[in-house]
User: Fold AAA family ATPase from Paractinoplanes ovalisporus.
Amino acid sequence: MPAFDLDTELSAERHHLAESRAALARMRGRAEALFSTGDRVAGDAYTAEQLGRHMARRVKELADDPTTPLFFGRLDIDDAAYHVGRRHVTDDAGEPMVLDWRAPLSRSFYRASVRDPQGVATRRRFGFVQGELTSFEDEHLDRGEELGTKSRILTAEIERPRVGPMRDIVATIQPEQDELVRADLADSICVQGAPGTGKTAVGLHRAAYLLYLHRERLRRSGVLIVGPNTAFLSYISAVLPALGEVEVQQGTVDDLVARVPVRAVDTPAATLVKNDVRMAEVLSRALWRKLTKPTEPIMVSDGSYRWRIDAEPLRRIVDEARREGLPYAVGRDRVRARVVALLQRQSEYRTGNSPGEGWLRKMGKVAPVTAFLEAAWPAVTPEALVAEVLTDPPEGVLTDEERAAIRWAKPPRTVKSAKFSVADLVLIDEAAGLLDREPSFGHVVVDEAQDLSPMQARAIARRSEHGSITVLGDLAQGTAPWAAAEWPETLAHLGKPEAAVVPLTVGFRVPASVVALANRLLPALGVDVPEAVSLRRDGDLAIVAVTDPSDLDAETLAEVTAALTHEGSVAVIAADAAVDRLRGHLAAAGIEDEPRVEVVPATMVKGLEYDHVVVHEPADIADAEAKGLNRLYVVLTRAVSRLSVVHAKPLPGPLASA
Ligand SMILES: Nc1ncnc2c1ncn2[C@@H]1O[C@H](COP(=O)(O)OP(=O)(O)OP(=O)(O)O)[C@@H](O)[C@H]1O
Assistant:
């Protein structure tokens, strides 16, 4: 193609971009105008409120970020051109100027190939700098041209330095990722992906996709993202808003179950027992054994008459309600209602009239009925049930040693004054689930799921009972004492045993040389997962052996200083115990004011990434915990461009020959 043609094309595309931005601004202007007059046109306060919320959301959704491209691709189908971007933009006549990446037609942007062109003659990808269109790249699928992962624009995007929070990947979603993103709402899936294969990205884009396709339904039931800690959640928090999705709930499992404050710390032994799935059985038994067979009749007087229900029908009512398998508190209400119904029938029989609402309510609360209920089906709170179990752990499910591990050394005088631990909160949540139903989200995305304990997984299962889930994780990165060695068990605890386990193996973060180093650890990790294959041929790996251990921190500092000559973020990752000392060391060298540098404890880096990672004394990281080698595997795979490993002690196990 002659050069002037390229220029003409580029300026035509720039023109389309400018026009699209102007059209989006008009769409937003219209939404704002509607927003400001909304309460005047709404019939009542409730509708005005609903309309106001809807319009405010709409205005937010239509925000234009001048630093990100409004479209990033184009499809030529049957002589028509369709630009693909972050959201629909239409001109004043309602004609599409940019298609939302989630629209059915846009699917071909991600999936069309020479083998299956899907009607696409040409696929065009745009290169941008700061929202300005600078280049494009065409694949003429109709002429057998396909770039795949060799696309220059894809490579540039993957290799772009990382600064600040996570970015969306709409422009470059790969076919195997797209298949997961666009899976049906009804499908629960489990993505087993090596580090940097885009699991988190896939989960977030899937949430955005499902919200687009099932907007009303999911807005009502809600979409929830569960992540391992708040640092991770804040790292990913900008992705969905950038995709126009501003109403997704994000939290850790601890956030989900936070019904009471955490005021105690468990021993490791107690933590293990409390997270074991048998605790569900312990709680369930402790609860249901509270029911007792009624042996006394109920005698009630309402002022005019005396009523009596014998023990036999009462036994039947309790047995029936139990057999119905309802949550405990619902069953209790049911028993009360049936007792009142029996009284009502007697009253109708004797007086010939139906008693009124007030009479029925009163009968539900009279002392003999309440006393019967308290004996046969006593009221209980989740906290009280857990406190009871921890005060005197029942026999039958746990071993004596396990019971001793969770028994409170000094039981509290009242439930209110009880001090609960993080693990207790999950138990309280389980107890609450036995008492009553938890509202279910329409879809839940669970990241770093390999670290969920069975009891935590059950807390998520209760919140997705009527919805589907996307489970993201990597068994090799499991560091919790209960971390899964295979997926089916976790999926069963999550209530979705049928979920398909789909692997992702192409890595977009970690350079090949770094992946090769990390992969050496895999055989020692005791899990059977496919190795990562890196798309990245760039990147540096340096192993710096220090002979005098007292030089270790100085060498680390030297690596940081060298890293700062490059673009992007720098992290020193060290065993937690060394972090304060290293921060002091860097501060003394005047690096504390450099916003690009962070000293991060090894236990906090899961899910994060930095352009340059300096790993400080890997042997200490590996020795710090039972799953230390898994932790080291996580640490080594955080680097986007360069990894320096600084060590005085021998490198741990399988890395020693590196
Ligand atoms: N298709 C893609 N195009 C461009 N960048 C991508 C693509 N897929 C993933 N990435 C980038 O690769 C990096 C790793 O992605 P992500 O964090 O989602 O991986 P992960 O599998 O969750 O990793 P980990 O298991 O280590 O937490 C991110 O910077 C992400 O933006």
